[in-house]
Each structure stands twice: as structure tokens, then as C-alpha cells.
């Protein structure tokens, strides 16, 4: 992705708030950040497409370009444009969290598949996207 989209990748370890504090010092001219939150994500219900970060966070305009996209729209976009994505989605995962709380989605169980699950894009009920998270 870095090569294909000519992204200036910066990797910062740690919690997001502290990472943004470090990033704001590394790139002081950056005033906005893109966020991949959707309306049905936890804490996504009251967001708007453009929102300033909370007062106790580093000052950025948060831009939510996919806020109102549905689950199926995400997969249509990724698959149509051949955007690379994490291979776990091809193994039945529909929502990725930590290594200790993320499992393949039981709604995609398919014993005929080598991994035992259909890929994420085959999930029919988008309300079940996070059913595999503990």
C-alpha cells in the first residue's frame, strides 16, 4: 500500500491518544486525520463526517469518509477495486480486535472450505459482523 498509494507511513506503538500526540509532533503541519469508523461501530452512532478531536486529545479534524457505508458496500469497494486487505477476512473473520478476543464468525462456518469458514464478504446479516468478538 505504501508503494502503490505513495503513502508516507509512520508507525507509532502504543495507545491511539499517545500515538497521535507523538504524530502531531512529527508532522506539525497535519491538521486532519482519516478515521475508518462506521456508524454501526462501537461509539459510531453520534459521529458526523467532520469532527474536531475531543479537547483532551491532540487537535486534529477527524474525517470519517466511510461513516455511512454498509458492510456490503465496504466489501464491494474492496473487491471491485482490488484493494489489499488482511488475509484473516478470507478465513471467516469479520471484525478484528485483539488476538485474545477475535475469532472467525460462526455465521460463516462452512466445513467444505479448507479453513472451515467462508470469507467475510459472504456475511449476509451485517448486524452479525461482530458476533465473533468477545
TrEMBL record:
Highest taxon above the source species: Eukaryota
Descriptive protein name: 5291_t:CDS:1
